[in-house]
Amino acid sequence: MPKCVKESTNYGPQAQAAVAKFHTAHPQYRAKGKANDPAIGPKGWAALFRLAYDK
Length: 55
Prior knowledge:
The structure is a single chain. The protein has a domain at about 15-30 and about 40-55. It is mainly α. It has helices spanning about 15-25, 40-55.
């Protein structure tokens, strides 16, 4: 995560925007039937780790 984004247990606007951006770029990981999916599921997390760490 960029250093400009502070770690927090609060699911605030920056986290919501990041999840929305991820779902826009990778709609296959958005929950089916939801226009706005506030969460990233297990397959989405696996994809994020692959993108972040090339694994």
